[in-house]
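=== RUN LOG ===
request id: a7f3
mode: sequence -> structure
chains: 1
length: 148
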Amino acid sequence: MEQAVRDAIIDRNPAKVTGWLSEYKKFEDELDDPRTLSLPVKFAASTAARIGEVSGVRVADIDTTSWTWTVHRQTTPSPGGLVDKGTKGKRARKVPIIAEVRELVPDRIAATDRDPAARLLTGPRGGRISTAILRNATHWDEVVTKLG
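=== RESULT ===
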């Protein structure tokens, strides 16, 4: 296949897998410095949302006039990687955004160039936030066990 590329028969080698190392590095960085996930943790705690719902929030989902978040998607792991799908309850719902989080939202919206389809909250390198990474960073299972 590489010879076909060199001979200009094809543009690129379809068998060459690229990008996997950078994807792996994104998750590795999040594990090394859990503080990079402080904003998603604050957002999740103040809205009582599931981790996957927080990972799935887009700029268009936030109404800065009424300060509500319309939740209608979540990011979940699948055999092909992380995917967005409907919420666990399969219905959209509105969640109020409290004052303590409101001050953080405009900066995140500005960081996306106000792209309505952009993710509001991302990992340290701009990727999706996986449930497992956020769970580990917050010691979620240990906290739940202690609380009973």
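=== NOTES ===
The chain has a mean pLDDT of 84.
The domain at 2-141 is CATH 1.10.443 (hpI Integrase; Chain A).
=== END ===
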